[in-house]
Amino acid sequence: MKLTKRKAFNFLRSYFDVVNKLQTDSDKLAFLMAIINKQFLNEDPEELQFPVDLAYESQINAIETSVKGWIRACKTDLQGNSLDTPPTPPKGKTTNTPKEEEVQVEVQEKGKVEVQEKEEGKGGLQLRKTNFGKILAPFNSEIEKSDLVEFYEYWTEHGINDRKMRFEKEKSFDVSRRLKTWMRRKIEFASEKKRDTRIHVDEAIENIKSGKTKQKTEWEWNNPKQINQ
Asked: Which whole number is the average pLDDT over 32-57?
C-alpha cells in the first residue's frame, strides 16, 4: 500500500469535462490515475500515451496548485515528512491551522474555476485545448509524437488574459493542411541547416588550402588558452 497523509482533494469540474472527451476506458483510467497519484503521492506520470498526455497537461496548473497548497498548509510532504520549521509569527498575530489553510486554498481554487467557466461558458479554454488534441490523435500513426506535441503547443499558445488560442485567431484553419505545411517547413529547415553547415566546412577547407587560414598544430588545438595570452 502506498502511504499518504492527504485525506482528500477537490475533483474539479474541468477534470470531469476532460475525462469525458477521452474515447477509450483505458485512456480515461490512465488520466484519472495520473491525477490521483499526483494529488496523493506527488508523483508525476510517466509515459502517458497520446492523447492522455495532452489531457493531463491541460490540467497540470490546477493539479500542482492543489498539491503545493496542501504541502504549504501542512508543512510536510504528502508522506508526512516534516519540512523546514516556519518562522514564529509576531506577537498579536494569529496564523491559520493547516486544515484552515487547506480549505482556503481549495476554496480559492474552486472560485477560479467557477469564474473561468462563467466567462468562457461550455467551451472553456482548457476543454477546447483537449478537443484540439483529440483532432490531432488520428495523425499519431503518420507523424512522430514529438512533432505533434510541438504543433499542439505552438497552435494552442495564448496570453494570460486571452480567451482565444493562436489557431482560433486564424480566419481559417484546416488541421490536415497545416500539419503538411508544418512538416514540409521542418524538413526544409533541416535541409537548409545541413547545407549551410556543409558550405562552412567547405569554405574552411578551401581557406586552409589557399593559406588564408593557418592550420593549427596538435599542440595549438590542445592549448588554446596559452595561445590567446
From this structure: 89
CB 50 within 8 A of CB 145: yes
Q: Between helices 60-74 and 98-120, what is the axis angle to 10°? A: 160
DSSP 223: -
C-alpha dihedral over 130, 136, 137, 140, to 10 degrees? Answer: -140
Instruction: Write out the three cell numbers for 124.
Output: 472553456
pTM: 0.44
- Given this model, what pLDDT does residue 37 score? 92
The three state secondary structure string of 5-72 is CCCCCCCCHHHHHHHCCCCCHHHHHHHHHHHHHHHHHCCCCCCCCCCHHHHHHCCHHHHHHHHHHHHH
Give me the count of residues in the chain.
229
191 vs 138: CA distance, rounded Å: 27
The single residue listed with the C-alpha cell 493562436 is 166
